[in-house]
Amino acid sequence: xxxxxxxxxxxxxxxxxxxxxxxxxxxxxxxxxxxxxxxxxxxxxxxxxxxxxxxxxxxxxxxxxxxxxxxxxxxxxxxxxxxxxxxxxxxxxxxxxxxxxxxxxxxxxxxxxxxxxxxxxxxxxxxxxxxxxxxxxxxxxxxxxxxxxxxxxxxxxxxxxxxxxxxxxxxxxxxxxxxxxxxxxxxxxxxxxxxxxxxxxxxxxxxxxxxxxxxxxxxxxxxxxxxxxxxxxxxxxxxxxxxxxxxxxxxxxxxxxxxxxxxxxxxxxxxxxxxxxxxxxxxxxxxxxxxxxxxxxxxxxxxxxxxxxxxxxxxxxxxxxxxxxxxxxxxxxxxxxxxxxxxxxxxxxxxxxxxxxxxx
Length: 360
Known about the structure:
By secondary structure, the protein is α/β, with parallel strands linked by helices. It has helices at residues 2-30, 51-54, 58-67, 69-78, 90-106, 127-136, 153-156, 169-177, 213-221, 223-232, 244-258, 278-292, 308-314, 324-332, and strands at residues 45-49, 55-56, 85-86, 114-120, 143-146, 161-166, 182-186, 199-203, 268-274, 298-301, 318-321, 337-339, 348-349, 352-353. It is built from 14 helices and 14 strands.
C-alpha cells in the first residue's frame, strides 16, 4: 500500500513539474522582444568562433603571455567598458547575420538559420567585456562557452558545431581530428571593402572540400602521374575533406532561397578556387560535387597560377586553404584567410618537403 502511495506521489510531482514547465514556456513565448532568438541547435548551422578570431585581442594576449593570467584578467576587468576592435572573423559573422535577416523575412517561423556561438577558453570574469563588445557592435550572439583556461574542443560536439574558427592551430587540428570542420584564421595585411548584402565563401579543393588522395600523388609522383590518375578515375568521386560538411550546410540554406525563386538574389555565394587545371584534372572535381548533390556558384581552375589576385577580385568574407603559402599570398592582397591543417600539404612549403626533426 505504501508503495502505491509513493508511486502516486511521484506521479503528482512529475505532472506538477510538466505543468510548471509548460506554463513557463508559454509565458516566455508571449514576451515581446525586437531581438531575434537563437534557433534550436538541431536545426541551425552552428558557427563556433573563438574570442581572438571575433575580436582583435593582440595587446591583451601579450599581457597574458608576458605577465600571466592574473594580470590578464585584471586588465580585462579594468577595461571591460572599452569594446574590443573587430578581429578576422568579424566581417564573416556580420555576413552570417545578413543571411539570417533575409531568411527570417522569407521564413518567419523557420529555425534553419546560422547560430553563432562564442567558444573561448577565457575566464568567466572576461565575459563582461566580451558581452559589452558584442552588444556594442549589435552582434546576435547569445550562446557562450567560456572554459576558464581549459580547451573548449570537447564542447564542440555538444553545441552541434558545423564550423569552428580559432587563432590556435593546435585546437583547430584537434577539432578536425574529432571530425569537425575547423580552420585557423588570419587577419589580412590590408583591408578590402567587402560586400555587405551577400556572404561570400571561397574554398580550395584538395585537402579542404576533398580528401588529399590526389595531392599525395602530386607530391610523391609528380604532375604527369597525377593527370593520368585523375583521367583514369574521373568518374570515381573523391573522398570528402574536412570542409565538405560546411559547404553542404551552406547549400542547404541556399536552397531555401531557390525555393522562393531567389536564386539570382541569394545572399550566399560559394566559390571553388583550385590550383588544378580544368582540362587535365577538373572534371573529377565537378563530378564529385555532383555525386554529393552539391554545387558551387563559381569554379575557378588556376592551373598553378597565384590565387591572391583572383581572391582580391572575389572579396570573400572567408577563404579556406590547406597550404600556408596560398594563405600568405591571399593575406598580402587583403583576403581574410583560414588555414585548414589537414593532409599531406602540411609536410610541404611551396612544393618543398619541410625537414622533419630527427628522432633520437
